What does this fold into?
Amino acid sequence: MRRKKLGISEVTATVLLAAVTISVSVGVYLWASGYLSSLTSAVTGVIERGEREVVARIQVVHVDISPVTGGYNLTIYVLNTGKTVETIDVVYVNNTVPDTYTPTKLRLAPGQLGKVVAIKYVTTARAFLVKVASRYAVSNEYLVKVP
It folds into this structure.
């Protein structure tokens, strides 16, 4: 004679099914909320940085060249044409950073003109390609020939 195989009761099956469904739902919610919050933070950071870069503008407007023993002093006039205060962090002359320039951190308000002096820049070049940079902006390239 064959024995009738018995399974679990309908009530037990329903309770187990509900428990598994709730557990999976909570896990998916926690994963999605953590993922979405980190994604939102990343996108917000990119947007804020992009907005900052749009309002940050600096421009080299003139460069004076003064010959000194062993090289040149370059006086670089920089205009903040943007809408935010900018600090000039670095100066480039012919795509290299001079050994000495002053001031090393030039702070410019919107519309303000300032100057940076590259001291005793040693080169045999007959022209200089000058640009400056802040955290959010890089100036135009300004070409000046040695007189």
Summary: The first strand starts at residue 58 and ends at 68. Residues 33 and 75 are 54 Å apart (CA to CA). The beta strands are 58-68, 71-80, 86-88, 90-93, 101-102, 106-108, 113-121, 127-133, 142-145.
